[in-house]
Amino acid sequence: MTGDAPAITAFGGGHGLAASLSALRRISRRLTAVVTVGDDGGSSGRLRTELGALPMGDLRMALAALAGADDWSRTWAGLFQHRFGGGGPLAGHAVGNLVLTALAERAGSPIAALDLVASLLGAQGRVLPLSCDGIDIVADVTGLDPARAAEPVEVRGQAAVATTPGRVAGVRLVPAAPAACGAALTAAEAADWIVLGPGSLYTSVLPHLLVPDMHAAITGAQARRVMVLNLVAQPGETAGYTPEAHLHALATHVPGLRLDVVIADPAAVGDPGPLARAAMDLGARLHLAPVRDVRDPALHDPALLAAAFRAVFAADDPRPAVPTPPRPVDGRTWPDRQPGAGCADPSGVGCTSTGGPGHRIPSGEGKE
After folding, report:
1. Which of 127, 200, 261, 310 has its CA 20 to 30 Å from the CA of residue 146?
2. What secondary structure does DSSP assign to 47-80, as a single string?
3. What's the CA gap between 290 and 304, in Å, rounded?
4. Stated pTM of the model
5. Are residues 211 and 276 in the same domain?
């Protein structure tokens, strides 16, 4: 590792992951987003059904969240987020979903397509799918039949699970052991920090931990693991959940999972005692910080969330201290180290840049 910025791998999907990335990009350019691929609704669902394509909506949103701040990058990011109106065959489709799907067909690889678009958007980080094949999310839901409220009913598909009026008792993936994206596994293993959430618990966060190879990479990594809690319970899959109930569900579905820090907004917690104990059960400390957007208390403010991340990273930096190399007292470079010489880091992680400026290789939710 080189430089002071940590290598961060963030897991999630939809608006929750986009919020996390909008904050993390302020801290490090050694940033990788790993995105769920279970979406079966909206534009992504239609392309998945019609073409057998990987659902690109959440991937597109992550790319837009990492797009460069210059006019070129923002123009392209805005175009990719544009959604067609009208009542014809294109109605509801996002331009970015169509372009990413076409690029993946032409390149024969969704990863190649994502890297090409990242270059176009000047993305400050890399975006990768959890798997290069689509997955299905299946939930056992109680309370759907008033006559047999305790009897679980199978609900299939991310869109249906996210909006179910019942209570989710458990989730699983179909297939049960999808192949994880190799580059995403590498990013998890190389990270200083692994970030989970915010976002839909059952359809954006848990799927990463239910893919066997990714579960092993996340739980076995040397990185610190931080979870960012949602600001409000979501209608449907987590309606009525307390903040600590999210952690209890995580522990139930992923036995043996250990976290280091749980970030929550004090206004969303009430009594912090039960949440602190639930965090401790996962090996984590609770970090309370104001992170909500004053204009919409259901959304995270990128600047405030970035400040919370900075505080957590500074207090729990897993990287060994690296001494500053000596320099000549007159400020000149050493004779054997000329300006512009190749990077001394044998891994090349801190030096290799591909896909355009800021695209480093590699070190709430709504579905689209």
Report:
1. 200
2. HHHHH-PPP-HHHHHHHHHH--SSHHHHHHHHHH
3. 7
4. 0.85
5. yes
